[in-house]
Automatic annotation (TrEMBL), chains A, B:
Cross-referenced Pfam families: Aminotran_5
Ranges of residues in domain Aminotransferase class V: 45-353
Family indicated by similarity: Belongs to the class-V pyridoxal-phosphate-dependent aminotransferase family.
GO molecular function: transaminase activity
Keyword Transferase: yes
Name of this chain's protein: (S)-ureidoglycine-glyoxylate aminotransferase
Ranges that cross the membrane: none
Length: 414, 414
């Protein structure tokens, strides 16, 4: 072989303060867990880690569901796995949309042949739950999908009433809580939510690439009806057994994933070793802090950030009554180039904040206060950096006021 | 909230020598890369890492293809992504099967509506390329899928002749080289292979959970015809544009993934940060060693392992003319319980070897010599441990001969 000798690139990772809606900074203890040696997928020490991850996921999801495990893929892999399990071609799916990630449910549902019905709410608002319930009554879909925290607009949809209505009408409720999982309260059992998709790289603060899901017996019932054991490892009887319409994806076949995550340990994929370590350590840290404390920490840092932004003379975007505690959307002042400010902030301060999508592009900045990054030092750093970057880009702000207002919030909380 | 106070489980990872066909040990430099801090997905420092990963993947795949990037999922996610891109319902797919992972192509192809034609070869053998070519002539499928290295049986399919015939007949050739990527020579461009799926947790020796793929313009052409930009971020014109039958999966939509991995950087999922660091560092190490040296290292350790196994009085499984250099299958001696031996080896020596699937379960052990784990100390450790465990379980072996024979091989190579 004649091989071209090329000097391989060296991996370079500069320091950053990440204040976006994800991926966010990861606790050094999680980074350390990632660097532990590999274990075989059927090594009892590894299957023990898998079992512990299931137990801890149940606690963090605040559910009694048996099934709580991760999908080896990013958040939308978790969403797709649940849609693939629940939708057969022609099934009706109601998708209330109040931002970009509502659209994602449409996108995925269409691929699996759903008959999609949408309900729209202006970006920056959420739905009155009664409006959704009325639409469920009118359409009678098989499933309703909702985004709990819509990072594109920074809004959080109340959903304590919709599930019980769904239960009565035999409709399934699937909730994307990617951006609120471990950052804001959500009660699957109390609120009658049938399936949830949590996030990794947001308030749980582990790297992107693994996605916790949970679902109840109503969802499992559908999965079992569609179950198909893999040809290469099925018993003779299993090969013959007739089944319902199989799930259209093998990678996302929750029937096969259940077998792998159960005591049967029937081989499917090779579970992502290091990412399961990160998940384990991340969940440990959440349980050590306690969910109540963690939610309160997110509220406090949000409060300080908002106070600082307003005191600086900037305006917040969106209906304040439904603001997400983990994302704060700031209006870009008239005449200011949103991306230029973000560039100055990144180049000089090494701080990253986010823009937004679609009609909001260039109109708002989105600042995340999530998980490990949701800390006083980070909130003060982003306020200081944003003020200086705005001045640098020609904006008029109330100099020095932002930090004082934020510190006042922290002092009052002590 | 009334929270149950439960002491979270502590993450425990015991030391292991992993001599299975994957997941295998990871170089400490890769483990260290995994523990680097997070970067935002659109941070120029991170998109630079993505670009470098593409460049290094092209080199390691030994291809001029533009498209070479990872799928955020385990190996079968890479396989599914290519099948999803290429198969529309009713398309003919020819699947020659000589082990479990041929069956996996059937499994995935069926899910995407392919009309599947299989060709079978006894487990432990491979196909004469002419037999496959004759079947292509008979069936004229849209795609032919082949496994390069079949870990379930330890065989490697020659495939230097099939691709050029496919090219003439306008058939696409897709090859699963999960178990040989970075461990045995494969020439996509020379051998006219249109798409390949490489492995992470095998000879590249990074953790499971990310999967390198590459494909040429013939595959890209089909992907572009089916392209659909996501509703939530499409321009008005893109929303209107009519397209071919969209790819059935959003997560595996290679058209959208191309946009994300191109300069357009159109948001799809949030790329797996830490796993991309691992990929970068893993590829650096492969290029530093050089592919030729790496393949030679795999051959040498295989030779020593085989010599040791035979000298001990054990027998190898399968046709030796098509043995994979990275997996060695050993017949379980009559009257010996295969799993008991594996248990003794794991408990006393902390060494892991694998069993097999289907009809071979309990009949053979599979010993991997892959990537970072493919080393003299590991080969000698597994021979020593296997001999002792066999004796412990009542087998008669030629005591002490295995290690001497293996060391002879290493001495002769110096």
């Amino acid at each position: 072989m004649t091989e071209t000798i090329t000097k391989p690139a060296k991996l370079t990772v500069p320091p950053r303060t990440i204040m976006t809606p994800g991926p966010v900074e990861v606790d050094p203890r999680v980074l350390r867990a990632l660097s532990l040696p590999i274990l075989g997928q059927f090594d009892p020490s590894f299957t023990n880690i898998m079992n512990e991850n299931m137990t801890m996921l149940r606690q963090v999801f605040q559910t009694q569901n048996h099934w709580a495990y991760p999908i080896d893929g990013t958040s939308r892999a978790g969403i797709e796995a649940l849609i693939a399990a629940l939708i057969e071609p022609g099934d009706k799916m109601l998708v209330p949309i109040y931002g970009r990630f509502g659209d994602l449910f449409v996108e995925i549902g269409e691929r699996y042949g759903a008959e999609i019905h949408t309900l729209d709410s202006e970006w920056g608002t959420v739905f009155d739950q009664e409006a959704i319930i009325a639409e469920i009554k009118r359409i009678h879909p098989k499933i309703v999908t909702l985004v709990h925290g819509e990072t594109s607009t920074g809004r959080m949809q109340p959903l304590d009433k919709i599930g019980s209505y769904c239960r009565e009408e035999d409709v399934l409720l699937v909730v994307d809580c990617v951006a609120t999982f471990c950052g804001a309260d959500i009660r699957p059992d109390e609120w009658c939510i049938d399936a949830l998709i949590g996030g990794a790289q947001k308030c749980l603060s582990i790297p992107s690439g693994i996605t916790p899901i949970t679902y109840n017996e109503r969802v499992e019932h559908i999965i079992l009806k569609r179950k198909k054991v893999e040809r290469g490892i099925a018993t003779a009887e299993e090969r013959k057994r007739s089944t319902g319409l199989p799930i259209r994806s093998n990678y996302f076949d929750l029937g096969q994933l259940q077998d792998y995550w159960s005591e049967r340990r029937l081989n499917h994929h090779t579970e992502a070793t290091s990412m399961n370590y990160a998940l384990h350590q991340g969940l440990e840290l959440v349980l050590e802090e306690g969910l109540d404390n963690r939610f309160a920490r997110h509220k406090l840092n949000e409060k300080a950030l908002m106070a600082g932004i307003l005191a600086m003379g900037l305006e917040l975007f969106g209906d304040p009554s439904c603001k997400m505690p983990t994302v704060t959307c700031v209006r870009v002042p008239e005449g200011i180039n949103a991306d230029q400010v973000r560039r100055v902030l990144l180049e000089h301060f090494r701080i990253e904040i986010a823009g937004s999508f679609g009609a909001l592009q260039g109109k708002i900045w989105r600042i995340g206060t999530m998980g490990y990054g949701c800390r006083q030092d980070n909130v003060l750093a982003v306020l200081a950096g944003l003020e200086a970057s705005l001045i640098r880009c020609g904006a008029v702000v109330r100099r020095g006021e932002g930090l004082q207002a934020a510190i006042d919030v922290y002092d009052a909380a002590d």
